[in-house]
Amino acid sequence: MKAFSVIAFALFCTLALAEDAPNPILELQKERYDALIHQNIGALEKLLSPDLVYTYSSGVSETRAQLLDSISNKDIEYLSIEPVSVRFRSFDGWIIATASVDFKVRISGEVKSSRLVTTEVYRKEKGHWVLLAYQSTAVK
Asked: Which of 56, 111, 127, 128 gives the lowest tally of CB atoms within 10 Å of its CB?
């Protein structure tokens, strides 16, 4: 019975650590959303991997440089970003976040609101987490 208790406790600790591991990503998401809304290119440069592939719900993909240009040029303006739900899965050196998020954006002068399902892949680069891949799909 004592061996079972030790194994159960070890399993509990492992699961608790796995649950706690993605917390830095939740904060990183909030920082990224804020930087998108406020068009803070400097902050985004720190949060986005140089290898980023950012795919919109339209199917258009951009590199990090293209995304930053789109934001700088106001080709897309993020007016609000409200997470509805988020789930994290942690792997060795990687974290995948899947979320349901309400977006309000201005594209070519037209304001659009939509709920999107997103998948985000994060990896550690030079000691800190960055967004490596982003994919969104519209919820109908």
From this structure: 127
pLDDT tens digits for 71-81?
A: 999 999 999 99
CA 72, CA 125: separation in Å to the nearest integer?
A: 24
Tokens of 37: 């809304």
Question: Tell me: the pLDDT tens digits for 91-115?
Answer: 888 999 999 999 999 998 999 999 9
CA distance 64 to 53: 7
CB 87 within 8 A of CB 96: no
List the alpha helices (DSSP H) in 1-140: 2-20, 23-37, 41-47, 64-72
Q: Starting at the edge strand that comes first in sequence, how are the strands of the sheet with 48-55 ordered?
A: 61-63, 48-55, 128-138, 110-125, 94-107, 76-91
User: DSSP class of residue 13?
Assistant: H
What pTM did the predictor assign? Answer: 0.81
